[in-house]
Amino acid sequence: MTVIKRKKITVVGAGFTGATTALMLAQKELGDVVLVDIPQLENPTKGKALDMMEASPVQGFDSQIKGTSDYEDTASSDVVIITAGIARKPGMSRDDLVNTNAGIVKSVCEQVKQYSPEAIVIILSNPVDAMTYVAYQSLGFPKNRVIGQSGVLDTARYCTFIAEELNVSVEDVRGFVLGGHGDDMVPLVRYSSVGGIPIDTLISKERIQEIVQRTRVGGGEIVNLLGNGSAYYAPAASLVQMTEAVLKDKKRILPIIAYLEGEYGYNDLFMGVPAILGGGGIEKIFELELTSEEKAALEKSADSVRNVLKIVNV
Ligand SMILES: NC(=O)C1=CN([C@@H]2O[C@H](COP(=O)(O)OP(=O)(O)OC[C@H]3O[C@@H](n4cnc5c(N)ncnc54)[C@H](O)[C@@H]3O)[C@@H](O)[C@H]2O)C=CC1
Ligand SMILES: O=C([O-])CC(=O)C(=O)O
């Protein structure tokens, strides 16, 4: 008899982003979820998972959520999401996290490689463009199976601000953010619209520039408000959208961090670009025609990513 098995999703790091992601994945019944943290935090990790399971009768989801520090529990995962690492506090940049998190991401990837060699891996840990590179090197997986999260979140912020500006539904806003996940990211105004109407016909140049700038420092805005950590609801929602695109082979066109081999003129670099995300992971990267101004902005963003890579020490 053929038995159809549920998908298995591992979330490494059971902190703010990891725990929120685990709950959202289960609520959407995308698969069974294994939530992993370090041995010293095994009981709190088990406690979070059990607490989520106890929400399942109320909310009516049948996904299982298991908390653990043992990678054997993660074996043969279809998707692994890595949120392990430290988060920034007010006054810090994402790049300040680089060497602590590079060591953590590398050690996590060694376990992922051993226990889930066929998984598609999505990285959240910051600075995420560089951490996706570290993961790619540590995993040794093909480039289509190593994906970083930045553009879905940055685009979500951008679209939130546009919807607010025009007092329209967020559902009707389309936008794109290219480049690295830092203050030089490149929201593409020319490719932004509401209900198909280009935003530059509806919002003044000055206001658009303010929205672009607010998007670029959107992570910092939340860090300053929270005071003791960084954003987690919208980052978790972004990870869930990417995971859903993979597990349901939806072939969504999403801005994601991909390994570039000539695209946009870049080589041996992970950076945010629009791509088709489906059952094969990154199935195709789209190369948009850019104006000279947009190209210069992308180059500045690529430089910032390269500069972080220069100081990675693993
Ligand atoms: N790329 C993006 O768009 C975003 C990235 N981030 C980044 O995600 C990371 C996590 O953020 P939060 O969840 O808010 O932090 P958090 O501090 O709440 O949670 C991180 C968790 O990772 C765990 N951890 C540390 N080393 C580990 C290891 N070797 N194995 C397993 N778990 C380990 C910690 O014990 C902690 O529970 C940070 O680096 C943050 O900057 C956060 C939001 C958005
Ligand atoms: O800002 C941070 O440190 C966390 C993050 O990447 C974001 O929320 O965009």
UniProtKB/TrEMBL annotation:
The keyword rRNA-binding does not apply. Its EC number is 1.1.1.37. This is Malate dehydrogenase. It comes from Paenibacillus nuruki. Signal peptide: none annotated. Belongs to the LDH/MDH superfamily. LDH family. Belongs to the LDH/MDH superfamily. MDH type 3 family. PANTHER family: L-2-HYDROXYCARBOXYLATE DEHYDROGENASE (NAD(P)(+)), L-LACTATE DEHYDROGENASE. Residues 153-310 form the Lactate/malate dehydrogenase C-terminal domain. Residues 8-148 form the Lactate/malate dehydrogenase N-terminal domain. Gene3D superfamilies: Lactate dehydrogenase/glycoside hydrolase, family 4, C-terminal, NAD(P)-binding Rossmann-like Domain. One of its GO terms (biological process) is lactate metabolic process. The active site is at H181 (proton acceptor). It catalyses: (S)-lactate + NAD(+) = pyruvate + NADH + H(+); (S)-malate + NAD(+) = oxaloacetate + NADH + H(+). The keyword Oxidoreductase applies. Catalyzes the reversible oxidation of malate to oxaloacetate. NAD(+) binds at G13, A14, G15, F16, T17, G18, D37, N101, L124, S125, N126. GO terms for molecular function: L-lactate dehydrogenase (NAD+) activity; L-malate dehydrogenase (NAD+) activity. Keywords: NAD, Oxidoreductase, Tricarboxylic acid cycle. Substrate binds at R88, R94, N126, R157.
